[in-house]
Amino acid sequence: AHPTPRLVAYLTGLTGTPETRATTAARVREELRTVLPGHLVPDLCLPLDTLPLTPNGKLDRNALPAPRPAAAPAGRAPAGQREELLAALFADLLGLEQVSAEADFFALGGHSLLAARLATRAADVLGNPIPVRQIFDTPTVAALAARSAAPGTPLPALQPASHDGPLPLSPAQARLWFLSRLQPGTAYHLPFVLTLTGEVDLAALTAAVGDLATRHAVLRTVFPEADGEPTQHILETAAPVRLRTVQSREDAEELLGALSAEPFDLATEPPFRATVLTEPDRTTVLLLTHHIAADEWSVEPLLTDLSAAYRARLTGCAPELPPLAAHYTDYARWQRTLLDDGHLQDQAGFWRRTLHGAPAVLDLPTDRPRPETPSGRGGFVRFTLPDEVAAGLRSLAADAGVTPFMVTQAALCSLLTGLGAGDDIPLGVPTAGRGERSTEDLIGFFVNTLVLRTDLSGDPTFRELLGRVRAVDLDAFDHAQLPFERVVEELNPERGPTNPLFQVMLTYQNRTPAPFTAPGVDDAAFTLRETDTAKFDLIVGFTDHLTGGPVDGAINYSADLFDAATVRTLADRLVTLLSRALARPDTPIGSLGVLVAGEEDTLLRDWNPTGDHHGTPSVLDRFARAAATH
């Protein structure tokens, strides 16, 4: 598992005893809070005698002392085996040294994804399943230990197996395989880009990329067809790393775009291509991966393992990483077993009941009618929640006993209802799908999609809507193991040119990837390159950097349906409605409004003149005049 990254400042020039220097460092942090945006304030300030330098006189990042994890607020020590086990899980997941029996999981930084991991790990160590809802309802160590003693039957554990011969795909992989056959293109490409400045050893970097593919077998897997069904076969070696030299940023961007648009033949080539671009002042690594082999939660193990392999190769040695507990093919086989042996039948029944009668297609205010055959073309519009809105988002979430994600869900549903989409709003929401401990360190396509159906009937207040959203989401999180593909089979909706069960997706990322660190590297930036594609009508995404600053947003839209200007206005409406809801959460959602600055004046004044002069007489006026003359 990878702890949540923190921003750390190292201070030199402080005098006095260690205690005095630590106190001064803490005061420096408090001063920084008054002059820096929240997301730039260090989580920790550490005093040093001197900064460690490389032989070339540059900062040696690897020699900086690692910050010790913070401790949770003091309180009663855990008592008894159940409390001690849960306290250890809290501390491990939250990156803390220890926690008390009164420690609140969410007050210490927990969120929905970590709650799902906690539920799975607790089931492993305690021997009985713990619903995610129970963690939300009883978030302290003591309360959870008392409530989680009820007996139950956990799912069978994921076990490693033989990787010889043709192997089954996971249901999610199979869906992407068929979509790739029906609509070849780049909609499911993940162009991961790592940009490095400083002294970069190309030979070591190339070898490290090879080490990454050796460690994660899914990156050197092909997906041939056998007897009409897709299979996967692991190759002994990965595709070679390509090297390119460019002279300018413009040339690099052009080449990155061209390389990212090269389609994969999944039947004959691995779903992973690595290209190293060298420029006069930087080195860029394109790790183009098909979604069938990775997801955005794969970034942490990817960067962690690549960084470790590069550092080892710099010394002339192969990396010695801890062995992986399983591979993706083990997960695919395990998931198939859960489905075939009926372990998820209760979850199938839940989704049939929950989604029965849901609208097949949301009535969105599009610029154009939906084409019979989607082109897959799309675009992005970016926006930011200002500091005060982001702070209000977190504050209302804590006050209402929900997560910031649930607040954005309520806001988006309110907006769609206000724009005429109705009061029954199904949204698609990706979940990490990495509840099993052995999957956390793997690159692979584990993400599952839940359909969260929100009832907005009766014009509830925003706070009341949050209660509805919380209930819907917690029920869904406790039935998140059933693959979306099986949910579609269970509901069997009428098929058409739209995505089944939902057309709008909402995402909320709570984490920042672990950094790439190595001797000689002055700076490293990692991004998922934007593409001009779209999988759904709209994907509304938020990224919370967990540092108290602004929350970044982006809307990926289908160019078949929307113009960029329309989506820009949609983003403005969402931020405006959210701001109003945070300021007046006890206001009915219908009174929050969807108009942005300037639109109310246009409607009330420009389009609704109230003067008495009427240049043309009405029909009634004309009739009265005619009657008076006869």
TrEMBL record:
- GO process terms (BP): amino acid activation for nonribosomal peptide biosynthetic process; antibiotic biosynthetic process; lipid biosynthetic process; monocarboxylic acid biosynthetic process; secondary metabolite biosynthetic process
Query: Could you tell me the keywords of this UniProt record?
Result: Phosphopantetheine, Phosphoprotein
What are the required cofactors? pantetheine 4'-phosphate
Superkingdom: Bacteria
A cellular component annotation (GO) from this entry: cytosol
Q: Which PROSITE patterns match?
A: CARRIER, PHOSPHOPANTETHEINE
What's an example of a GO molecular-function annotation for this chain?
A: catalytic activity
Q: Which residue intervals make up region (Disordered)?
A: 59-78
User: InterPro entries from the xrefs?
Assistant: ACP-like_sf (IPR036736), AMP-bd_C_sf (IPR045851), CAT-like_dom_sf (IPR023213), Condensation_dom (IPR001242), PKS_PP-bd (IPR020806), PP-bd_ACP (IPR009081), Ppantetheine_attach_site (IPR006162)
Q: Does the keyword Phosphoprotein apply?
A: yes
Q: Where is the composition biased (Low complexity)?
A: 69-78
The yes or no answer to whether the keyword Cell division is present is: no
Residue ranges annotated for the Carrier domain, each copy included? 77-152
Family annotation (PANTHER family): FATTY ACID SYNTHASE, NONRIBOSOMAL PEPTIDE SYNTHETASE
Q: Which family does it belong to?
A: Belongs to the ATP-dependent AMP-binding enzyme family.
| Listed name of the protein | Non-ribosomal peptide synthetase
